[in-house]
Amino acid sequence: MTQLNKTPLHDLHRELGGKMVPFAGFEMPVQFPLGVKKEHEHTRQACGLFDVSHMGQVLIHGPAPAEALETLVSADIVGLPDGMQRYALFTSEEGGILDDLMVVNAGDHLYLVVNAACKEQDISHLRTGLGSDYQVEVVERGLLALQGPEAATVMQRLCPTACEMVFMQHGRFEIAGIPVWISRSGYTGEDGFEISVPAEHGDALARLLLAEPEVEAIGLGARDSLRLEAGLCLYGHDIDTTTTPVEAGLIWAIGKPRRRAGERAAGFPGADIILHQVEAKDHTRKRVGLLGEGRAPVREGAELFSADDIKIGVVTSGGFGPSVGQPVAMGYVAIDQAEVGTQVYAEVRGKRLPMTVSKMPFVTPGYHRG
């Protein structure tokens, strides 16, 4: 049996009564005694603290790291201002998505956050793709996400200068003498902060945050329902090597300078296939949001059918949306069934449940844009 890794907050999770499960090679809390639904609601109403230390944190040093990284991702990294963060996609030569990641311009180097399940392959991909002129350094740090409408209220007490940042801004700060890297971002659709902390200080920082009256510990279960309501993709489920950015509805992650008429057009793996789909709009399927009726959730893997009983797609993420008050899902459907308002049917235990193609996100985002 493979030994599971532990995050710097492992002992704290146990102390708080976290129900621990294997996840991406780590032992992680799926929920705390509050329960998934209440954890979800608390994050939407006040503030939740998530341990995301299983994610990979990587520094890239070298002569021109932004230009170099653009050979592997479709985003505009060269145009990313100092102290800002951007969503990016590693693409394959076939046009598929190898992983999604966050990239920070940290001045003389780049700081990347990659998915836990793809961490090893991403690091290998970076080292091979960037070559010997670049140092790809994996940093062993904790990563905490403070999320919810009261996140800024909490941060104002502990690190008021971090509250001056806007959505997707990044900076270096101190909290109670602990040096931290903070971005104003997250995975819930709410305002919030992701805090990278030296591993040896992770437990102390988490306890400090949890001591604030607005903050509750939140597990993976609510993290998943929150990001689903926010219409955010989960790698390996909603996006993978078989989906292109265009099919996934992530055209916005292809920077304008990287498109056909841009000053640094293409130059990333699979660019010909992906940019052809952008222009010709000849892809045959599309990721859509789906709203169900009643209370029965529609889970990942449920097949989708048209009104005339033709199989048109599959659900990639689904559950009950506590904030929406009804079942929510996302999945891929044939392009002619992708228009908002189209009624489709999900097969669940031999029954066909009606669902309506919906705009995403399912909730109004609370991002602090200034």
What does this structure look like?
The protein contains 8 helices and 19 strands. The chain is of the alpha+beta class and 370 residues long. It has a 6-stranded mixed sheet with strand order 10-11-12-9-3-13. Strands 14-17-16-15-18-19 form a 6-stranded antiparallel β-barrel. Strand 11 and strand 12 (192-198) form a beta hairpin. The N and C termini lie far apart (49 Å). The model has no long low-confidence stretch (mean pLDDT 97).
Please summarize the sheet with the most strands.
6 strands, mixed
Radius of gyration: 21 Å
The stretches of 5 or more residues where confidence is low (pLDDT under 50) are none
Beta-strand percentage range? 25-35%
**What's the end-to-end separation, in Å?**
49 Å
What percentage of residues falls in helices of 4 or more residues? 10-25%
Total E-strand runs: 19
Put simply, the count of helices is 8
Shape: globular
Summarize the structure.
With 370 residues, the chain is α+β, with helices and mostly antiparallel strands. The protein has helices spanning 10-15, 36-45, 65-69, 119-130, 151-158, 202-210, 220-229, 271-280; strands spanning 19-23, 26-31, 47-51, 56-61, 85-91, 97-105, 110-114, 135-138, 141-147, 170-175, 178-183, 192-198, 215-218, 285-292, 303-305, 311-321, 326-334, 343-348, 351-358.
